[in-house]
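Before we proceed, please read the two lines closing this message. Tell me what the token row says about the fold.
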Amino acid sequence: MTEQMTMAQRWHNYRAPKSTLFWACVVCIILTMVVGFTWGGWVTGGSARTMAEKASDTARADLAATICVTKFMNGKDAATQLATLKQTSNWKREQFIQDGGWATLPGLKQPVRDGADTCAQRLAEMELPQGEQASGATGSTTTNGTTTVQ
């Protein structure tokens, strides 16, 4: 009498040939790489280097723009210069900032790439405080109705 083997028994007794195991491993490796590079966020070394360089350029320009805005706003006639900047056309604002020397960091001979453009954009969006617009003095502050000149 021949007994029918159950599925669990057949699974337990199965011995895969080496070629089947080899190709199963190859398919698993390929699928892992496809999923990793597609959805897993993996990148190649060249892509990572490019992303790092772009991030450092953006950070450098952002830092230069922050210093530029500070130098611009601490200048002698910031209110007049800001009004002139806002009247200047968009494509000439970067040159206005470079010509004024605000975009060049201390110790450098040339402005940081994209720093002047970012600085000009930030300054164009700025509004001077009410006390400076009325008096034109950059060192005055208004607190509770009293104006002090620094």
In short: The radius of gyration is 33 Å. Residues 79 and 136 are 6 Å apart (CA to CA).
